[in-house]
Amino acid sequence: MEENRFNLVDEPWIPVANEGLKSLKNVFSGNYKAIGGTPREKISILKLLQAIAQAAFTPKDSSEWEQSGPEELKNKCLAYLENNKAAFFLYGNKPFLQMPVEKADLKSYGYFMPEVATGNTSRLTELQTEHPTTDAERALILVCEMGMCLGGKKIDRKCILSPGYDKKTSGYAGPGMCATGLQHTFLTGRTIIETLWLNLLDKEFIKGLTHFTAGLGTPPWEKMPESENCQVAENLKNSLLGRLVPMARFCLLKEDGMHYTEGIRHKDYLSEFWDPSASINRQKSKARMLWCDPEKRPWRNLPAMLAFLDSENASSGFDCIYLKNGIERLKACENINDIGIWCGGFKVSSNAGEQYASGNDDCVESEFRLKLDDIQQSSWYSDFQREMEHLEKYERVLYSSVNSFMKAQKMDDALAKVASGIFWEKAEGYFTELVTACINDEGMKKLRAKFRSLVRNIYDSICPHNTARQIQEWARCSPFGKFDDTKGKSGEA
What average pLDDT does range 352-365 have in this prediction? Predict the structure, then answer.
């Protein structure tokens, strides 16, 4: 029998922004600001921490949630971890979130790191070279594989724990990924504990989530499944805690790699089942999800995600449980003036059932803060939506101008796409100012002037205007005068 060792409660393994690795006890007892790592790792860790928080304390209603506060949640989580410490050993007779799948193929740990090149994949830099892993890295790999694993044929389909159970040709992607990579959203506070408290769901609210037919449920580390479709697995499929830590892969850690096979198959958005951090639109016959897109920063999706603030168009956007429920109940909280919103995900490609990262695929994330007093004003959402539409028009004008110039000069017109990317990258820096300016007509005029200046500066920097011929085309294609938005709220771009 293997000795119990490396307890996740006490050993550092969670990347914390600007603080290095911390243990579960450190995270729940300290005042650290945010989780570190890649967006894929952040989503996986936040969902695990949220599951621990829900298991430790699920308030009966929004009133009890408000009265509890982050401090009470912290104390209850620390007590829970102390009482359940035996379930958090990474190695031992009952290893954390691991199954007896010794017969499954053994994969090297680099196989589970998207940034590492394994097999016949080309290595472009030394950073892509596989290296010996620490126990902390293995713990993080394990947590990521539970819900953010990639689908494909490389999983061992011969290892089956349920007699007669059929494993398809391609392994299902984790419910946090689905087809090409979902965009996830969490409310964020000033500390990690406040973040968990802001996203904590109460029993009354969970009861109204019809797709979680098993309600809150039991976390898998308290009661592990015996196979892919046993009764415990069925309960995990239909409960909130089972969705936060979905065990989509059955894994077993070893010194030289990890035994790895498909685990519990969870329902996806086509069956109208989705993560509380994902965003879904169910207005048409076929549900639509908000997908991660490296070419479209997540903050640009906010008008669709905040449509519930507009009573006339509340059903037209994408619903995110954490975002909508969190903002709705915060309206009654007098001691919270602003909140943060984190959006991110991991975009992947898919071919013949195999998911992989290539080309323009990448992790992407955005984080910003909103003042509750601002967004609760009756006209804020319509003003915000209009200004975001203005930004889209600015980008189209810039793209058109650069594209026309490049074609006239017989230069690479791909630079028009580069110009658009630069515009959105720099515009994100003004996003918080834009949110605030939506309630101030004079402030909005000044901000639009900044965006016009941004368009002109990018156009000037990309389109050379040194020779007489260049100057002639530069002036003809210039974005100057192609929009007039100087009239405040009534102006048209």
Answer: 84
